[in-house]
Amino acid sequence: MTTHPGAIDVRGDWTDTANDVARRIRARVLELTILKDGCYLSQALSSADVLATLYTRILRLAPLDGPLPSEPFTGVPGTPNRSPSGGRFHGAHFPDGDRFLISPAHYAVAIYAALEAVGRLEPGALESFNTDGSTLEMIGAEHSPGFELTTGSFGQALSQSAGIAFARRLRGETGRTAVFLSDGELEEGQTWEGVQAAAFYRLDSLMLFVDVNGQQVDGFTKDVMNVEPIDFRFAAFGWDVRVVDGHDVVAIAEAVEAKVADGRPLVVLAYTDSARGMPYLNANKPHLHYVRAKTDADREAFEQALAELKGILA
């Protein structure tokens, strides 16, 4: 239950909406995994509840007139006909509104599925996912739906977002700046420079959400480059640290609702399961960075899991 003074009650019908959006994210990305013979599926399975809570409960984004189409790719920044920013899917900027910045480019398909589920990406747009000339790229960039920042190299988004939060404060804006990060990016030096700077400049309008699924391309994070204890490390830098079950939408929302303006930026460490909603994949851990069906048994299990997820949605 929400216990802090002045907080709104975060237990209500919105949780049904958030859980439904999370299931839609998992189903959509699994469907694309089957259709495209591979995808960054485990990242969507682990982050679906965090993204659903952000889009349905936490973020104050400007509404759109309707779902936006994903325009074809026309050019990179600096070219005469550059592609428009993917940030337009989060609506127009306004002083009291939130900005939402995405860091891990390989989570792009989860972002697209979330935008589709909440009515910001036109239905059917994902048919062009990972095809030549589409902005719905497997590795998201600044023109991909939901992406406002360049995401390469990894680990740059927190520094850029802290700069945005600082600039907004100078302009007198009261809106928050939210950043979504993968735990593997906590191995990046620039991430910790951003952590240090955000605390030094007392950017308490900055919110960082980390999908701590404990895995990376080469195996378990703890075996490749251990980043724990993450909570102590952030606290040592002066951050307001909240550790939550990343599949509990109420806990995620409460972590934000409890935030007070005390000069400390907020980090929500969401511990997640990279096989959430698809336990068949547990046997393949930790090798789930990029998932594809390799055997007939895999294909049968994938189809069954998709049917179950769609059955829940029916």
Architecture overview:
With 314 residues, this protein is α/β, with parallel strands linked by helices. It has nine helices and seven strands, in the order ααβααβαβββααβαβα. It has helices spanning 14-35, 41-58, 108-117, 157-170, 189-200, 221-224, 230-237, 249-257, 296-313; strands at 99-102, 177-182, 206-212, 215-216, 219-220, 240-245, 266-271. It is globular, with a radius of gyration of 19 Å. It starts with 13 loop residues before the first helix and ends with a helix. The model is unreliable at 1-11 (pLDDT under 50).
Features:
two-stranded antiparallel ribbon; 7 strands; alpha/beta; 314 residues; Transketolase_N; single chain; thiamine pyrophosphate; Transketolase; five-stranded parallel sheet
Compile the SSE list and pairings:
Blueprint: H1 14-35, H2 41-58, E1 99-102, H3 108-117, H4 157-170, E2 177-182, H5 189-200, E3 206-212, E4 215-216, E5 219-220, H6 221-224, H7 230-237, E6 240-245, H8 249-257, E7 266-271, H9 296-313
Parallel strand pairs: 1-2, 2-3, 3-7, 6-7
Antiparallel strand pairs: 4-5
InterPro entries: THDP-binding, Transketolase_N
Family: Belongs to the transketolase family.
Region (Disordered): 70-90
- In sequence order, what are the helices and strands, one letter per element? HHEHHEHEEEHHEHEH
Helix content: 25-40%
User: How is the main sheet built?
Assistant: 5 strands, parallel
Tell me the fraction of residues in β-strands, as a range: 5-15%
Within the largest sheet, what's the order of strands? 1-2-3-7-6
